[in-house]
Amino acid sequence: MKTKLTLMIIMTAILASCSQKETTITLLETTDTHGRYDEFANDALVIKQMKAELGDRLILLDNGDDLQGTVFQYCSNQDASHPNLTSEFLNYFPYDVATVGNHDIEAGRKVFDRVYSETKMPVLAANVIDETTGEPYFTPYVIIEREGYKVAVLGLLTPYVVTWVPDRLRPGLRFEQLEAAAEKWVKIIQEKEHPDLMVGLFHSGFEPQVQNLPEDHPLGRENATKWVTENVPGFDIIFYGHDHRARAEKLTCTDGNPVYVLNSGNRAQGLAKAEVTLKKGQKPKISVELMPTDGEAIDPDFANMVQPYIDRAEAYQRREVAELPVSISSDDVFNGPCLWVDEIHRCQMETVEAEGIHADISVAAPLSSGKTIEAGMLTVSDFFTWYPFENSLAVMALTGKEVKAFLEYAYEMKSPIYNFDCAAGIMYEVTDKKTMGERIHILSMADGTPFDMEKTYNVVMNSYRSMGGGNHLINGIGWAQEDIKNHVVWQSDRDLRSIFIDWATKKGTLDSEPLNHWRIK
What we know:
CATH topology of the largest domain: Purple Acid Phosphatase, chain A, domain 2
Shape: globular
Largest sheet: 6 strands, mixed
CATH architecture of the largest domain: 4-Layer Sandwich
Radius of gyration: 26 Å
Mean pLDDT: 94
Helix content: 25-40%
Structural class: alpha/beta
Strand content: 25-35%
Number of strands: 26
Strand order of the largest sheet: 4-3-2-1-13-14
CATH class of the largest domain: Alpha Beta
Distance between the termini: 101 Å
């Protein structure tokens, strides 16, 4: 009996020593593909070759924002008769783990629930909470075991989703501050799992470009990766996305330990790679790099997988919609009223009127610069150029003073062009040479009745703007982010592009003259 016990102890020690031998693993990240799988076949070949070489020693991670960005991804989201293109993409290699992005949430719960039910890997977001249970709606973290070592991957999403995505697209979900969630879950993982490598997979940019809210705001920072890296001990590597800025560098946390941060960029720009050597009792040895994939040969099997989705989308885009009498350009807005924007105004105002809600004023901006649509028969494809995003419609209550403040801010922030909202339903002049606050002079309502600074008006706009996007309501008018929802009168349950296409189809022939409700002096 004693001999058997001794042999068992020896065998256990031998097995333990074998499992603790030094090993090197490679972690590879993609992020913010935005549905550009037609451009991913180069990356796919590199990934396939690395998986063939490294086997289980390769850990493949995706950082979200996959469900919006191309017509064929949009069509796939609407088509439940085929597997979603993003789930096909994630399952192709397959990925080991993925994190949710804000544009994945924006696709709507019906869509992302279906997509993630089709994936073979866990999908993470520890700070997205199911309001019914009080627990994370997605998987908070995952433990990946490789050759006796435990790699913990914690997924987090910027909570600023609530400032861009209407409640109807994310019902029953609460988004908690990323910084606090990082501190909470690192402690849980360390105490429960004792990982050999702690990895963050964050859909949150590196650092704030413009911090519009105080640092003690419940949402914290939109782009919190740098802050977490430097202030939350425990991470060895943080892969991140959201800000579309490729990066691979070493920072130092407050505890003195190095933390490596990586972002592969966006839209199949390349890959972010971390090579990690693990040995029990020693700190991980880590080297990082960005791997551009332009010019590489393609993976034909991946391209063949994507092609049917492209074919179905092209058939959809070829559908004829309406006649456009004259050519239009988005950049014409810089010279005054233009058809590019005024047809959006007409669509917005007539749509809400059809819903039984009177819209006094419409505000809208071109959403892309340098775009032109030629006169002739328009197809669905032209409307993806004209209106590239899946915003919905909203009606908000603004006083006359707030309308003026909104337009003052819009003219000040006219670059980038998607912030340059102009209005219809009122007659106004812009004195270009004056400063912000003194440029906009509102003459009257469009029907000639007086415009009243104290009166409350129904103003129709897209949902991005009505959620605070562009900061017209926050920095322009002065509303607090949490108060914006109190001004919403009505919201559509369909995306604005679909509404626009249906409106144009019914109209048959679009207008040839702008509304001319404003001018630049």
